[in-house]
Amino acid sequence: MSTHGYESGRLNLPFVGISTFGKKPYVEDWSRISADAAVMGAPFDAGTQWRSGARFGPRAVREASTLFSFGHAGAYDHEDDRTYLGEDVSIVDIGDADIIHTDTERSHANIETGVRAMLKAGALPVVIGGDHSINIPCIRAFDDQGLIHVLQIDAHLDFVDERHGVRHGHGNPMRRAAELDYVTGLTQVGIRNVSSTAREGYEDARSMGSDILSVRQARALGPEGVANRIPKGARVYVTLDIDAFCPSIAPGTGTPSHGGFLYYGVLELLQQVARNHDIVGFDLVEVAPDYDPTGSTAILAAQVTLNFLGFIFDARAKKA
User: Fold this and answer.
1) Phi/psi at 125 (5° precision)
2) Average pLDDT over every residue of 95-124
3) What is the chain's mean pLDDT, rounded?
4) If exposure means fewest CB atoms within 10 Å of the residue's CB, which of 3, 42, 110, 165 is most exposed?
5) Given pLDDT bands bounded at 50, 70 and 90, which one contains residue 7?
6) How far is 36 from 85, CA to CA, in rounded Å?
7) Which residues pair with 84 in a beta bridge?
8) pTM for this structure?
């Protein structure tokens, strides 16, 4: 077989083989995670209030991520003149947390177990949802990790305290995070239009330490201006709801909201935050692929995740 002078062995094109995230190695035994970053799926969507389907998000994002796995050493960016995610950065896929249908608490507990395993191994946790309620167990897992600040990029505030007895649905995660004593505050960006959170929720959020910015406010400030609003020295956990993007580029989600970010609005913010702060965890939620037959929403999610990982580890290398 021809190797074209730069490859050996199998060609292993993106559409061939098993769809782990980025076609990275699969680690089934969570006691044997050894990597700089670990990716876990959290295919839970019983927290949705309208259209379900995000349980298929991890599968779709993994498959889309293979588009960016041609096997060369890292990803060269000619604008930055940087090679991101080279051979010096190890990434593994640890599969999915076990989901027990209709049982939110046990499903969330299983997600929390996975995040704790990644943290114990010293790997950056990357969790692909699932609906936004999966952020609740992700943040719970940081209870022994020191103080953190949460950056939420989203169309909706997700600060509902309780609705008809529900406290752990996809409208609640930021309220649950703000209640934790090791969460020092929230920066909530992209919030717009008619929200699932009532006015008093916004008042509660601000009183509990939230800085809330709409897309238009974020655009006026620019990525650097938004990133500079995060407290200096804060260790940052990032949660990205795909509906932060305009549905013109991300229709595959349960609760689309027009007027969202376009690609570079989010990408440049993530790059700036990675430069300014230590990123301690990341989840990307609410990709519901059945609402987007083109697959572009899942590709967007995979591309953003891979780029963000590149920014994180490039920034860490520069600070070392």
Assistant:
1) -75, 130
2) 98
3) 95
4) 165
5) low
6) 11
7) 75
8) 0.96
Burial of 68 (0-12, 13-18, 19+ CB in 10 A): middle
Helix (H, G, I), strand (E, B) or coil at 91: strand
Q: What is the 3-state secondary structure (H, E, C) of 174-227?
A: HHHHHCCCCEEEEEEECCCCCCCCCHHHHHHHHHCCEEEECHHHHHHHHHHHHH
pLDDT at residue 68 above 80? yes
End-to-end CA distance of the chain: 41
- Render pLDDT for 171-229 as a digit per residue (tens, 0 to 9): 999 999 999 999 999 999 999 988 778 899 999 999 999 999 999 999 999 999 999 99
Compute the half-sphere exposure of residue 104: CA atoms within 13 Å on the CB side of its CA. Answer: 16
For residues 125 and 281, the answer to whether their CB atoms sit within 8 Å is: yes
Q: Which helix (H) or strand (E) is 95 found in, with range? A: strand 91-96
Average pLDDT over residues 63-87: 88
Other C-beta atoms lying within 10 Å of the C-beta of residue 1: 8
Is 56:290 a contact under the CB 8 Å cutoff? yes
**Helix, strand, or coil (residue 149):** strand
- What are the DSSP calls for 256-276, one per residue? --SS-B-HHHHHHHHHHHHHH
pLDDT the model gives residue 2: 44
